[in-house]
Write a sequence for this structure.
């Protein structure tokens, strides 16, 4: 599992992700998620899930954060925090793992819920044996 020491500031990132979670547009699932992505230069880019009446068009919080960052020209990252409120800590879904791997590589992933449960691991723990540009 996780190797090395997580970087500083993950709890503060989770606090920012918790605020982003409040902006989730989740009228269908009622399941709000917030994400905070930290660039290598220390900038924080947030995301929340954005659902649609055409359910399959829903975008997860993590992907919203990544696409916001990339669209702003931010391309190097060192950590992501994800906050949800569920019976067990909610890790990024499969498609989000693939997108996070593409743009963030083996970053630290910090999970929190609203009750104070938390866990920090690395992308390579969430997505072992990934498909990426080395396979092309
Ligand atoms: N969701 C996320 O935002 N991130 C994830 O990694 C898992 C799921 C959202 C999508 C949908 O709006 C709601 O949570 C329920 O699946």
């Amino acid at each position: 599992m996780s190797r090395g020491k997580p970087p500083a500031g993950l709890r503060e990132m989770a606090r920012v992700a918790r605020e982003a979670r409040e902006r989730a547009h989740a009228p269908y699932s009622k399941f709000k998620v917030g994400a905070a992505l930290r660039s290598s230069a220390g900038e924080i880019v947030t995301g929340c899930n954005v659902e649609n009446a055409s359910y399959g068009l829903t975008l997860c919080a993590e992907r919203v954060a990544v696409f916001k960052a990339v669209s702003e020209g931010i391309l190097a990252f060192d950590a992501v925090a994800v906050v949800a409120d569920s019976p067990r800590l909610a890790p990024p879904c499969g498609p989000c793992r693939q997108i996070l791997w593409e743009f963030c590589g083996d970053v630290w992933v910090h999970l929190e819920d609203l009750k104070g449960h938390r866990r920090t691991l690395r992308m390579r723990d969430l997505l072992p044996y990934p498909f990426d540009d080395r396979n092309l």
Observations:
- Strands lie at 33-39, 44-48, 77-84, 108-112, 118-122.
- The chain has a mean pLDDT of 97.
- The CA atoms of residues 7 and 25 lie 30 Å apart.
- The two ends are 27 Å apart (CA to CA).
